[in-house]
Amino acid sequence: MKKLFYLTLISIGMFSCDSDNEIDTYNEFADIKFTVTSTEIDRQSEIESMISNGTDDTGSTNLHIVDESYSNEHLPYTQEYIHQTVFHATILSLYFKDNSGAPIGQPFEPYTVTLNIYVDSNVVAEEEIIITDSGQVVNAGYDFSFF
User: Fold this and answer.
1) C or N terminus of the chain, fewer CB within 10 Å?
2) What is the value of pTM for the model shown?
3) CA atoms of 118 and 142, how far apart (whole Å)
4) What architecture is domain 27-143?
5) How do the domains of the chain map onto residue ranges?
6) Cα 14 to Cα 6: distance, rounded to the nearest angstrom
């Protein structure tokens, strides 16, 4: 009986390892688009869009693409990646940080920012927030799970 139990455990372990390897190497193609829109277009800000899958079994990076922009002239922001190979557990992230300030003695004028992540023209993540203070941060994220 113990022998059967141990054989069952070993079999489960072997099959789950094979399954994990299949998940790590499974991929598909997708059109990815990041956008940031705002009610104010001349605010100093930082924007970073990222596609990342970490590393594969050999320690090599499967996919890591980063676009960074720091400006008061980049809104509205759009970054597109057409027909990208994406792997299971690929992470998409979009980061916005306000770096504008109010003139001395003047109150900060709030404005609205909307972050969108699209996969094959479908919105998969959306964050909209009113920026009320200089230095405020907004994030949006999505991860691929094929199973």
Assistant:
1) N
2) 0.77
3) 9
4) Sandwich (2.60)
5) 27-143
6) 12
